[in-house]
Amino acid sequence: MSTSMTDPMIGRLIDGRYQVRSRIARGGMATVYLATDQRLERLVAVKIMHGHLADDSTFTERFIQEARSAARLAHPNVVNVFDQGQDADSAYLVMEYLPGITLRDLLQEYGALTSEQTMDIVEALLSGLAAAHRAGIVHRDLKPENVLLADDGRIKIGDFGLARAATAATATGAALLGTIAYLSPELVTRGIADTRSDIYAVGIMMFEMLTGEQPFKGEQPMQIAYQHANDSVPAPSGTNPKVPAELDELVLWATARDPEDRPADARELLEQVQETARNLETSLTGTGPQKTMAFATPLVAQGDTAETQVLGTRGAVAAAVTPAASAMATSSATGELARAAAPRRRRGWILLAVVLLLAGLAAGAGWWFGAGPGAQATIEDVRGLSVEEAQLALEEQGVLVSETQGEAFDPEVPAGLVAGTDPPAGEIVARDLPVQLVVSLGREPTTVPGVIGIPEADARLALETARLVPAEQTIAQFDGEIPEGSVVALVSLAEDGTETAIEPESSSFVGTPVSLVVSAGPVPDVIGLPSADAIRAFEDRGLVASVVGEPVFNNDIAADGVVSVAGPEGAIRPGAEFALTLSKGPDLVDVPEVVGESINAARDILTEAGFEVTIETNAPSVFWGLAIVQEVRPGDAQVLRGTPITIVAFFD
Question: Which CATH architecture best describes the domain 101-279?
Fold first, then answer.
């Protein structure tokens, strides 16, 4: 049967623009189709979220997050996202269409790749990943299925559906994100991902390309996850002796169990890959973007060499020559005025100097405390904001935000959001003092202790030591194997009363409320007791019992005694109801009187009455019609139904 006949999306026009032509691939969250963009007349890949996930806001938000994450990246080694929207009940992404195969297809067809091929692919992969890390994005789901090898030689990273900000961390509790085979130890054990988690996945893919197989294997996903968390990735040369020692070192560096021992991000690993390639004289195809050239000396335009001329005009004063006496008088008067005016001019200059000095000091003080080294600002409370929002809010206040970020567990702020600042909010700091954002790692992980079967008091102490919060009220449950007062189970109670089992030795978070289910001992054993005593025994233990149905015969239990008890399936809690079946007593039947009858007649009478008859006689069978029964055993008038009867008849 053709795809078009089985898939209703084939031939559909999405959002009045994208004509679906065929299906390319199907995943757990979405299906990818080849379509024609009728507006721009080009082939595109349309990724449509599965319809049954449309009502789940988490899946929809993750789907939209893929578009936002990829749209922030413009890089030759990242699949371009053109559009995103909603058509009917389905969210969709429109991406560039790359005819070709995935790295998974290549590995399945060829097995191990050569060192040169591996280095080509890894360099392109790291080039795109470095752009993502530089933009503050962690992919979190790197695997061969998400590395696209186009027919024209381009290599691109796709599927940013699990991408998040580089400072974000995730706790999966019931489920881990990403593919198990490529999960880093910190994702398995703590649910935390950063740029170094992507580096680990790249290292696992390098191992797989160099050897044709994954480093860890297992029948169950959790077996593989356990190996990631507890074992170190072996050197690829142990599987493929052709692998150079330099590539062994790259793989082991990228897959170090401790994130601190790995490259900080894709850029750092890319530089080492390129250096290793040069040392090995590996022929790289240059699939990554060309490096930007920087000029050592800036280009400066030549200024004019001529000095600037200031041209003035000199005025001419015409003066008449006076007689000598007049000139002398005038000279004398002018000298007196000059001498009298000199002190005033000096005081004026002093006052002007003081004013200018004070103005300069005021301006300097204003600059010093307003924009200079003495400027201060009060740190705003940015708790709960995203890193970008917190940076913007602080910078608008004039606070200098440090390029480095701290991390801390926080019981209230989700992972990846800002949990606070260092110094804390409300403090007044100099504007040139960098304030560090502290990003939440989410709730601090802990391990649930094994407390099943131990007394309640000891279990509470163990839970408190693990920094879990045991509920004051316990839940009673009847259990025939665990002693009364000891722990049967641990559960988490929702607001509606729904219980979720908490497994011992499982991962949890500091401060998680835990309810203890404590044994109330076994259900009362009332078999054989009179009905009134049995009902009272159940009531004394907080249970409900009632008689149901008609009594039944029981050869071992007297009439009105309890023959059987039927209770609820699963956990039995106080208030549970039980049904009691009572006894009629023994099932007695009358034995017909056959003494004095012939053997044949006696046998027929007893057989017809439902008895199994045994004959004890010395008479030949041909004479049984004449031989007279002398005795019947047992000789009771009534016996239990099913009791065999023996008839005795002897000839003298």
Answer: Orthogonal Bundle (1.10)
